[in-house]
Amino acid sequence: MDKKAVFEVELSHGHYSTTLTLPASDYEFLDALDELRMQPPEAPEWELTYYEGFSELAGIIEEAGNIYEINALAKVMADHDSRQEAAFEAFIKTEIDKKHGTISMETIYDLACSVDNCHVLNLQTDEQLGRFYVENDFIPELAEVSDQVLKMLDYAKIGRKMRQDEGGVFASGQYVTQAEELKKVYRQTDFALRKPDYAVALEVSVMDEPERTILLKLPLSKKELEAALSQFEMEDICYRCADCRILELANAITEFGNLEQANEAAQQLADISEEHLPRYKAFVEALGRNARFPLPSEKEILEDYTFFREYVEPSDMAKEKLSIFLGEDEAEVLSPYVNMYGYGNALIEWENAKLTSYGLIERADFQPLMEEEQTQHGMEML
After folding, report:
1. 216: left (phi over 0), alpha (psi -120 to 50) or beta
2. How far apart are CA 335 and CA 322, in angstroms?
3. 35: closest CA among 359, 360, 285?
4. How far apart are CA 201 and CA 2, in angstroms?
5. How far apart are CA 232 and CA 304, in angstroms?
6. Which residues pair with 342 in a beta bridge?
7. With contact defined as beta carbons under 8 Å apart, do 48 and 58 qualify?
């Protein structure tokens, strides 16, 4: 099941930039780094652009940690229910009230992981809190007081005193008090971004019974596939690609509806070298719905396709061509008087190239990226 989005961030590295929704899977993050022309453990600069939660958190997380820690925090927050969200908000507000300066990422992360170490009541005001304590006999001095006297009590004052004594906090329409020691998990957590141990993560579930879902890490051997599916016997099952080494192929793998085909696709994705993965991503993005399995072999994609990873805008291609034709010095003199963007677009169209998130890709012979016979006789269209 997809997790809810927590943050949206803009990532940047030099003159490259992209947006990413958090929490992001490892492949989603690695894909963003490919767009930024980076490799882990490098961390891009980032800026929070969207967060619907309580404003106090938005104001402190940008100063608190690096983007990999923020993504880990988002994964924890994505699993919070409404009760846990209120607890986390209360924890943060308490930390802010202590006025100890900037709240560290260690504290924020530990608080997010400690949301079950508290009591949460559906109460919104001191008056409601006071009534709750009195009516449930939590104040022994008032347990024997008559109903007539109870009507004259200042419940708001009682609730306020109880809240102050307990260190309780109202948050998101609920009342929160800490019940246990907070967890200390930040220092035991590895936040490093790593390549996953699969090429495709495939969710397999029984029709109309989503709770009966397993996650297959593909590719698997035939024997491993049979063992994984044996638990479903003859029941109707469905598949969903939850993560993929080339993200744009995730829907296509889901649409296979066939585990053997999905496993074959995963094997080819697993065989692509890290060095040439951005070239494959550019190829797939450029072809869109015309991309097919099997993808070109590594030999074919190196010999038949030219890839310029440094290109971001059409003007980048224009600058390169002018430098080739005129030399760098003359090109620099002429470029301010040329519509570089328009010239670059014209070159891209003339060469049947495609400018993608990962760079510019074109056939070495300048023919269309997918030839007609490939369209007619290729394997099943994605």
Report:
1. beta
2. 8
3. 359
4. 13
5. 44
6. none
7. yes
Q: What is the DSSP string of 245-295?
A: SSGGGHHHHHHH--HHHHHHHHHHHHHS-TTTHHHHHHHHHHHGGG-BSSP
How many Cα atoms are found within 13 Å in the side-chain-facing hemisphere of 269? 31
pLDDT in tens, 319-346: 988 988 888 888 888 888 889 999 999 9
Residues 6 or more apart whose Cβ sits within 8 Å of residue 194:
26, 40
Q: Among 32-36, 119-123, 151-155, 259-263, which is the least confidently predicted range?
A: 151-155
Give me the helices (H) in the chain, please.
26-35, 55-61, 67-78, 82-98, 105-112, 126-135, 147-150, 155-166, 222-229, 250-256, 259-271, 277-287, 298-304, 314-326, 328-334, 340-350, 372-377
Single pTM value for the model? 0.85
Q: How far apart are CA 269 and CA 294, in angstroms?
A: 10
- In sequence order, the 6+-apart residues with CB closer than 8 A to the CB of 274 are 195
